[in-house]
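Structure in, sequence out. Go:
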Protein backbone atom coordinates (compact mmCIF):
# COMPACT_ATOMS: atom_id res chain seq x y z
CA UNK A 1 0.00 0.00 0.00
CA UNK A 2 1.03 3.60 -0.52
CA UNK A 3 2.63 5.03 2.62
CA UNK A 4 1.31 8.47 3.57
CA UNK A 5 3.07 10.94 5.86
CA UNK A 6 1.32 13.57 7.96
CA UNK A 7 2.18 17.06 6.81
CA UNK A 8 4.51 19.20 8.88
CA UNK A 9 5.98 22.66 8.53
CA UNK A 10 9.20 21.23 7.09
CA UNK A 11 7.27 19.88 4.08
CA UNK A 12 6.63 23.33 2.61
CA UNK A 13 9.61 23.35 0.18
CA UNK A 14 8.60 19.93 -1.14
CA UNK A 15 4.96 20.99 -1.61
CA UNK A 16 6.04 24.22 -3.30
CA UNK A 17 8.22 22.31 -5.75
CA UNK A 18 5.16 20.36 -6.96
CA UNK A 19 2.66 23.22 -6.75
CA UNK A 20 4.98 25.35 -8.89
CA UNK A 21 4.84 22.73 -11.66
CA UNK A 22 1.06 23.02 -11.82
CA UNK A 23 -1.50 25.81 -12.21
CA UNK A 24 -4.56 25.96 -10.00
CA UNK A 25 -7.25 28.33 -8.75
CA UNK A 26 -8.63 26.29 -5.83
CA UNK A 27 -7.65 27.57 -2.40
CA UNK A 28 -7.62 24.13 -0.76
CA UNK A 29 -4.21 22.90 -1.85
CA UNK A 30 -1.99 25.88 -1.07
CA UNK A 31 0.46 24.94 1.68
CA UNK A 32 -0.69 27.84 3.85
CA UNK A 33 -4.27 26.59 3.78
CA UNK A 34 -3.26 23.00 4.49
CA UNK A 35 -1.04 24.05 7.40
CA UNK A 36 -3.63 26.36 8.95
CA UNK A 37 -6.18 23.51 9.04
CA UNK A 38 -3.92 20.50 9.61
CA UNK A 39 -4.96 20.17 13.27
CA UNK A 40 -8.67 20.11 12.36
CA UNK A 41 -8.35 16.94 10.28
CA UNK A 42 -5.70 14.44 9.31
CA UNK A 43 -3.82 15.70 6.26
CA UNK A 44 -1.11 13.47 4.83
CA UNK A 45 0.71 13.08 1.56
CA UNK A 46 2.73 10.77 -0.65
CA UNK A 47 4.64 11.05 -3.91
CA UNK A 48 2.95 8.67 -6.36
CA UNK A 49 4.21 8.20 -9.93
CA UNK A 50 5.95 11.55 -9.74
CA UNK A 51 2.92 13.48 -8.41
CA UNK A 52 2.13 14.98 -5.02
CA UNK A 53 -0.98 13.29 -3.64
CA UNK A 54 -2.72 14.85 -0.63
CA UNK A 55 -5.02 12.65 1.46
CA UNK A 56 -7.47 14.16 3.96
CA UNK A 57 -9.63 12.47 6.57
CA UNK A 58 -12.03 13.93 9.11
CA UNK A 59 -12.73 12.01 12.31
CA UNK A 60 -15.00 9.02 11.62
CA UNK A 61 -15.29 9.98 7.93
CA UNK A 62 -14.05 8.32 4.76
CA UNK A 63 -10.77 9.71 3.43
CA UNK A 64 -10.63 11.78 0.26
CA UNK A 65 -7.90 13.03 -2.01
CA UNK A 66 -7.11 16.20 -3.91
CA UNK A 67 -6.31 15.84 -7.59
CA UNK A 68 -2.66 14.78 -8.11
CA UNK A 69 -0.36 17.80 -8.28
CA UNK A 70 2.59 18.12 -10.62
CA UNK A 71 3.39 17.30 -14.22
CA UNK A 72 3.73 14.07 -16.17
CA UNK A 73 1.46 11.06 -16.72
CA UNK A 74 -1.36 11.78 -14.27
CA UNK A 75 -3.37 8.75 -15.42
CA UNK A 76 -0.67 6.43 -14.04
CA UNK A 77 -0.91 8.17 -10.68
CA UNK A 78 -4.70 7.91 -10.58
CA UNK A 79 -4.55 4.23 -11.53
CA UNK A 80 -2.16 3.65 -8.61
CA UNK A 81 -4.63 5.44 -6.28
CA UNK A 82 -7.49 3.27 -7.54
CA UNK A 83 -5.49 0.13 -6.81
CA UNK A 84 -4.37 1.39 -3.41
CA UNK A 85 -7.93 2.32 -2.38
CA UNK A 86 -9.09 -1.18 -3.36
CA UNK A 87 -6.38 -2.72 -1.18
CA UNK A 88 -7.53 -0.51 1.70
CA UNK A 89 -11.15 -1.54 1.22
CA UNK A 90 -12.08 2.07 0.36
CA UNK A 91 -13.68 3.84 -2.59
CA UNK A 92 -11.43 6.45 -4.15
CA UNK A 93 -12.89 9.94 -3.75
CA UNK A 94 -11.49 13.18 -5.10
CA UNK A 95 -12.70 16.47 -3.60
CA UNK A 96 -12.33 20.11 -4.68
CA UNK A 97 -11.76 19.28 -8.34
CA UNK A 98 -11.65 22.21 -10.73
CA UNK A 99 -13.63 21.80 -13.95
CA UNK A 100 -10.42 21.23 -15.94
CA UNK A 101 -9.54 18.36 -13.58
CA UNK A 102 -12.98 16.81 -14.03
CA UNK A 103 -12.51 16.96 -17.78
CA UNK A 104 -9.11 15.26 -17.68
CA UNK A 105 -10.34 12.63 -15.20
CA UNK A 106 -13.22 11.72 -17.52
CA UNK A 107 -10.81 11.52 -20.46
CA UNK A 108 -8.46 9.22 -18.55
CA UNK A 109 -11.22 7.03 -17.08
CA UNK A 110 -14.45 7.45 -19.07
CA UNK A 111 -17.60 6.50 -17.14
CA UNK A 112 -15.57 5.22 -14.20
CA UNK A 113 -16.24 8.12 -11.82
CA UNK A 114 -19.49 9.70 -10.63
CA UNK A 115 -19.12 13.48 -10.61
CA UNK A 116 -20.97 15.82 -8.23
CA UNK A 117 -20.77 19.63 -7.98
CA UNK A 118 -20.39 21.07 -4.48
CA UNK A 119 -21.61 24.68 -4.44
CA UNK A 120 -20.85 25.10 -0.74
CA UNK A 121 -17.14 24.67 -1.48
CA UNK A 122 -16.93 27.04 -4.46
CA UNK A 123 -14.24 29.69 -4.03
CA UNK A 124 -15.15 33.36 -4.44
CA UNK A 125 -12.77 35.27 -6.67
CA UNK A 126 -12.61 39.09 -6.85
CA UNK A 127 -10.87 41.65 -8.99
CA UNK A 128 -8.19 43.21 -6.78
CA UNK A 129 -8.23 46.59 -8.54
CA UNK A 130 -12.01 46.83 -8.05
CA UNK A 131 -11.80 46.00 -4.35
CA UNK A 132 -9.12 48.63 -3.82
CA UNK A 133 -11.03 51.38 -5.64
CA UNK A 134 -14.64 50.37 -4.75
CA UNK A 135 -15.88 52.49 -7.66
CA UNK A 136 -19.36 52.44 -9.14
CA UNK A 137 -22.86 51.70 -7.94
CA UNK A 138 -22.27 48.03 -7.17
CA UNK A 139 -19.79 49.01 -4.45
CA UNK A 140 -21.80 51.95 -3.14
CA UNK A 141 -22.56 50.43 0.29
CA UNK A 142 -19.01 49.18 0.79
CA UNK A 143 -17.59 52.59 -0.14
CA UNK A 144 -19.93 54.27 2.35
CA UNK A 145 -18.71 51.99 5.17
CA UNK A 146 -15.12 52.70 4.15
CA UNK A 147 -15.66 56.46 4.00
CA UNK A 148 -17.34 56.43 7.39
CA UNK A 149 -14.28 54.69 8.85
CA UNK A 150 -11.93 57.19 7.20
CA UNK A 151 -13.94 60.14 8.52
CA UNK A 152 -14.05 58.68 12.05
CA UNK A 153 -10.43 57.53 12.14
CA UNK A 154 -8.45 59.75 9.73
CA UNK A 155 -5.19 58.93 11.51
CA UNK A 156 -5.42 55.15 11.22
CA UNK A 157 -2.24 53.31 10.22
CA UNK A 158 -1.66 50.18 8.17
CA UNK A 159 1.42 48.10 8.94
CA UNK A 160 2.71 45.01 7.16
CA UNK A 161 3.08 41.97 9.40
CA UNK A 162 6.70 40.90 9.91
CA UNK A 163 8.94 39.28 12.49
CA UNK A 164 9.08 42.50 14.53
CA UNK A 165 5.33 42.82 15.10
CA UNK A 166 3.66 39.44 14.51
CA UNK A 167 3.49 38.77 18.27
CA UNK A 168 1.50 42.00 18.70
CA UNK A 169 -0.99 40.70 16.15
CA UNK A 170 -1.10 37.35 17.93
CA UNK A 171 -1.74 39.05 21.29
CA UNK A 172 -4.57 41.12 19.79
CA UNK A 173 -6.17 37.98 18.32
CA UNK A 174 -5.80 36.02 21.57
CA UNK A 175 -7.49 38.87 23.44
CA UNK A 176 -10.42 38.85 20.98
CA UNK A 177 -10.74 35.06 21.01
CA UNK A 178 -10.76 34.99 24.82
CA UNK A 179 -14.00 36.97 24.73
CA UNK A 180 -15.78 34.39 22.57
CA UNK A 181 -14.07 31.09 23.28
CA UNK A 182 -16.77 29.75 25.61
CA UNK A 183 -19.37 30.02 22.83
CA UNK A 184 -17.01 29.25 19.95
CA UNK A 185 -17.95 26.52 17.50
CA UNK A 186 -15.59 23.65 16.77
CA UNK A 187 -14.76 25.33 13.48
CA UNK A 188 -13.81 28.59 15.17
CA UNK A 189 -11.70 26.74 17.74
CA UNK A 190 -9.83 25.02 14.93
CA UNK A 191 -9.43 28.33 13.12
CA UNK A 192 -7.96 29.83 16.31
CA UNK A 193 -5.31 27.10 16.42
CA UNK A 194 -4.60 27.73 12.74
CA UNK A 195 -4.19 31.48 13.23
CA UNK A 196 -1.82 30.95 16.15
CA UNK A 197 0.28 28.43 14.20
CA UNK A 198 0.32 30.63 11.09
CA UNK A 199 1.49 33.73 12.95
CA UNK A 200 4.16 31.84 14.88
CA UNK A 201 5.55 30.44 11.60
CA UNK A 202 4.65 33.44 9.46
CA UNK A 203 7.97 33.95 7.66
CA UNK A 204 8.59 30.29 6.86
CA UNK A 205 5.05 29.93 5.47
CA UNK A 206 5.68 32.83 3.10
CA UNK A 207 2.51 34.64 4.17
CA UNK A 208 1.84 38.30 3.39
CA UNK A 209 -0.46 40.44 5.46
CA UNK A 210 -0.94 43.46 7.63
CA UNK A 211 -2.90 45.13 10.40
CA UNK A 212 -4.78 48.36 10.92
CA UNK A 213 -4.20 50.36 14.11
CA UNK A 214 -5.86 53.30 15.78
CA UNK A 215 -3.21 54.74 18.02
CA UNK A 216 -1.53 51.74 19.64
CA UNK A 217 -4.59 49.48 19.31
CA UNK A 218 -4.76 46.86 16.56
CA UNK A 219 -8.36 46.82 15.32
CA UNK A 220 -8.04 44.50 12.29
CA UNK A 221 -5.60 42.14 10.61
CA UNK A 222 -5.51 39.90 7.56
CA UNK A 223 -3.07 37.67 5.71
CA UNK A 224 -2.85 35.39 2.71
CA UNK A 225 -0.45 33.98 0.16
CA UNK A 226 0.33 34.00 -3.56
CA UNK A 227 -0.81 30.84 -5.38
CA UNK A 228 -0.03 31.64 -9.01
CA UNK A 229 1.12 34.47 -11.27
CA UNK A 230 -2.25 36.23 -11.14
CA UNK A 231 -4.01 35.12 -7.96
CA UNK A 232 -3.63 35.38 -4.20
CA UNK A 233 -5.65 33.63 -1.49
CA UNK A 234 -6.81 35.56 1.56
CA UNK A 235 -6.80 33.00 4.36
CA UNK A 236 -7.69 35.07 7.41
CA UNK A 237 -9.45 38.40 7.95
CA UNK A 238 -10.38 39.53 11.47
CA UNK A 239 -11.59 42.86 12.78
CA UNK A 240 -13.02 44.44 15.91
CA UNK A 241 -16.59 45.13 14.75
CA UNK A 242 -17.12 47.89 17.30
CA UNK A 243 -15.12 50.06 14.90
CA UNK A 244 -17.57 50.63 12.05
CA UNK A 245 -15.93 49.93 8.69
CA UNK A 246 -13.03 47.93 10.17
CA UNK A 247 -13.63 44.99 7.83
CA UNK A 248 -13.84 47.27 4.79
CA UNK A 249 -10.59 49.06 5.66
CA UNK A 250 -8.53 45.91 6.26
CA UNK A 251 -9.92 44.33 3.09
CA UNK A 252 -8.89 47.35 1.02
CA UNK A 253 -5.56 48.03 2.73
CA UNK A 254 -4.35 44.43 2.55
CA UNK A 255 -4.90 44.33 -1.22
CA UNK A 256 -3.50 47.83 -1.74
CA UNK A 257 -0.32 47.30 0.24
CA UNK A 258 0.45 43.60 -0.25
CA UNK A 259 -1.17 42.35 -3.45
CA UNK A 260 -1.88 45.29 -5.78
CA UNK A 261 0.23 43.84 -8.61
CA UNK A 262 -1.96 40.71 -8.83
CA UNK A 263 -5.26 40.40 -10.69
CA UNK A 264 -7.44 38.21 -8.50
CA UNK A 265 -8.10 37.64 -4.80
CA UNK A 266 -9.54 34.26 -3.86
CA UNK A 267 -11.46 34.64 -0.61
CA UNK A 268 -12.29 30.96 -0.27
CA UNK A 269 -15.67 29.27 0.19
CA UNK A 270 -18.84 29.93 2.19
CA UNK A 271 -19.29 26.31 3.43
CA UNK A 272 -23.04 26.64 2.84
CA UNK A 273 -23.40 29.20 5.65
CA UNK A 274 -26.11 31.58 4.45
CA UNK A 275 -24.78 34.70 6.20
CA UNK A 276 -21.29 34.05 4.88
CA UNK A 277 -22.66 33.52 1.38
CA UNK A 278 -24.48 36.85 1.47
CA UNK A 279 -21.36 38.61 2.73
CA UNK A 280 -19.16 37.11 0.02
CA UNK A 281 -21.68 37.85 -2.74
CA UNK A 282 -21.98 41.45 -1.51
CA UNK A 283 -18.37 42.08 -2.63
CA UNK A 284 -19.32 41.21 -6.24
CA UNK A 285 -17.10 38.25 -7.18
CA UNK A 286 -15.96 38.24 -10.80
CA UNK A 287 -16.31 34.46 -10.84
CA UNK A 288 -16.62 31.41 -8.62
CA UNK A 289 -14.14 28.56 -8.80
CA UNK A 290 -16.57 25.68 -9.11
CA UNK A 291 -15.51 22.56 -7.26
CA UNK A 292 -16.58 18.99 -7.88
CA UNK A 293 -16.31 15.66 -6.13
CA UNK A 294 -15.59 12.42 -7.97
CA UNK A 295 -16.24 8.91 -6.65
CA UNK A 296 -14.76 5.85 -8.34
CA UNK A 297 -17.51 3.43 -9.40
CA UNK A 298 -15.32 0.80 -11.09
Amino acid sequence: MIEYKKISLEDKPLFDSYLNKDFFYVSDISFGNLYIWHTAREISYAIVEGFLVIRTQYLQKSPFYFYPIGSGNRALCIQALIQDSTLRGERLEFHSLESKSVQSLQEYFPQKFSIFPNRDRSDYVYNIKELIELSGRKYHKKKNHLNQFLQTYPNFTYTSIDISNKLRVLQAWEKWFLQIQDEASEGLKNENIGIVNALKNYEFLGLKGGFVSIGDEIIAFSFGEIINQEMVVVHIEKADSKHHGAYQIINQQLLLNEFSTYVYANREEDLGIEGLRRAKMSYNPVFLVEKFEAVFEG
